[in-house]
Design a protein that fits this description.
Blueprint: E1 10-11, E2 14-15, H1 20-38, E3 45-49, E4 53-57, E5 72-78, E6 81-84, H2 86-92, E7 100-102, H3 105-112, E8 117-118, E9 123-129, E10 132-140, E11 143-145
Length: 157
C-alpha cells in the first residue's frame, strides 16, 4: 500500500498541510472542487488529515486546554473528485445545484443498508431521499457504488 503524502505534498491537486497558509490553500482547493462537482461549497475551513481524508470546521472562540482535532469527517479526496460522507452530503446537499440524485424509499433503505443501487448519473454524486441526504457515492453505468461504512449501515430484515 502506498504511503500517505507528507505535509506539503500534493494529492489529487489538493495540498495537505497543517500551517495556516497550507490550510488556507487547502480550503480554497476543496471549495473549488466542491463548486465544480456540486455547484456549491459551504463556508467552512477544510483540512486534510490521514492521507486523503477531509475534515471541515468553523473557527470559534472556545478555548480548549487539551489538544483536540478540529472538525467533522467531511469526505475523501479521490483521483477524480471528492467523495462526501453522510455529514458532508448534509452540508453540501441543500444548496447543491448538480450531481444530486433523488431516490425513493426502497432505494434509500437499500443504500443505508450498504447496497449499491441503480440510478442514473455519472461520477461522484449526492443521494437524497425526501429531505434527507444519504451520503455520497460513485455513479457509473447506471449503478451508484455505496461507500457507507459498515458501522453506520442499517439492518434490513
Amino acid at each position: 500500500m502506498p504511503e500517505a503524502p507528507s505535509t506539503g505534498q500534493q494529492h489529487g491537486g489538493i495540498l495537505r498541510g497543517e500551517n495556516k497558509e497550507a490550510i488556507k490553500e487547502t480550503t480554497g482547493r476543496i471549495k473549488h472542487a466542491l463548486i465544480e462537482q456540486y455547484g456549491y461549497a459551504p463556508e467552512l475551513i477544510f483540512e486534510m488529515r490521514g492521507g486523503r481524508k477531509v475534515y471541515a470546521y468553523k473557527n470559534c472562540s472556545f478555548d480548549v486546554k487539551a489538544h483536540v482535532e478540529k472538525g467533522i469527517y467531511f469526505g475523501r479526496v479521490e483521483a477524480d473528485g471528492i467523495r462526501l460522507t453522510i455529514e458532508g452530503a448534509f452540508l453540501v446537499g441543500p444548496n447543491a445545484t448538480k450531481n444530486v440524485i433523488e431516490i425513493d424509499e426502497e432505494k434509500a433503505l437499500k443504500w443505508m443498508s450498504g447496497e449499491d443501487i441503480e440510478a442514473e448519473g455519472e461520477g461522484w454524486v449526492i443521494l437524497k431521499w425526501g429531505e434527507y441526504f444519504l451520503g455520497g457515492g460513485k455513479a457509473k453505468n447506471g449503478i451508484v457504488k455505496n461507500y457507507i461504512s459498515k458501522d453506520r449501515r442499517i439492518k434490513l430484515e
